[in-house]
Amino acid sequence: MCWSASADLVAGGIITTVGAACVIRAARRRRRAVPLAALPLLLGAHQVIEAVIWNAGGGSGPATTAWAVIALPLLPLWVSLGVLCAAPDRARRRLLLPVAAGVLTSTALAHTLATTPVVAEIRGHTMGYAIGLPYAPLLLGAYLLSTVGALLMSGDKGLVLLGLLAGIGAALCAVVWRMEFISTWCAWAAVCSLVLYRWTGTVRPSAASPLVRPAGLR
After folding, report:
1. Is the distance from CB of 150 to CB of 80 less than 8 angstroms?
2. Cβ count near 73 (within 10 Å)
3. Residues in a beta bridge with 121
4. Which residue among 27, 60, 135, 162 has its CA within the 20 to 30 Å range from the CA of 206?
5. What percentage of the chain reaches a pLDDT higher than 70?
6. 186 in Cβ contact with 71 (< 8 Å)
7. Are 11 and 46 a contacting pair, CB within 8 Å?
8. With 0-12 CB in 10 A as exposed, 13-18 as middle and 19+ as buried, what is 180?
9. What 3-state class would DSSP assign to 94?
10. What does DSSP say about strands 119-123 and 126-130: parallel, antiparallel, or unpaired?
11. What is the pLDDT of residues 49-65, one digit of tens each?
12. Which of 201, 196, 202, 205 is nearest to 161 (CA)?
């Protein structure tokens, strides 16, 4: 992952395909789980976009901007709201914290992208993205709360597992690839999101699901 254009393209294609399967499974069982089930679809497309950046030699073109939009303002909002929709009712109140963090983080990062150019730079076998982030440690903490934190606070075993994997990846990428953290962690998160395929097969069907038959038809 993220080691070359070919690696990103192949991995992105596989993850996107699994993401489509996740959406189909979730739609059949519980529609509230669809936004989160679509996460591999988003992250797989994200890796394909990075393959385009590799082929362009980095820079600040449209692909770089699209990549940054997904990685920075979109992802924390998508994950926190997706977990809120999919989580058990008992976890809804505590999930308001990561959702609030996601909204604030997304707003701040969207403003930064609108006012500051982002430049991709190939650094050996990794890709770095240069953008001036104000209050970077605070934004990073809120970002991780809205993504990893939301999953860990979900009250769902499958989502907690994804949160643990994402958290371990965040720590590893911060230590090994500090300057390329956002690229390497997004690649790790994309791979980890494949556990959502198993999760979509375990979510409880909603009352409106075609899998649940009216009592008179049993």
Report:
1. yes
2. 22
3. 128
4. 162
5. 92
6. yes
7. no
8. buried
9. coil
10. antiparallel
11. 999 999 999 999 999 99
12. 196
For 93, 102, 144, 163, 182, the CA distances from 168, given in Å and listed in that order, are 26, 20, 12, 9, 14
Q: Which strand (E) or helix (H) includes residue 179?
A: none
Dist CA 133 CA 139 (whole Å): 8
Amino acid at 77: L
pLDDT in tens, 88-125: 899 999 999 999 999 999 999 999 999 999 999 988 88
Q: Which structure tokens are listed for 154?
A: 């979900």
Q: Is the dihedral of CA 139, 69, 113, 96 positive or negative?
A: negative
More confident residue, 81 or 129: 81
Q: What are phi and psi of 211, to 5 degrees?
A: -75, -15
Q: Helices marked H in 2-56 — which ranges? A: 5-29, 34-37, 39-56
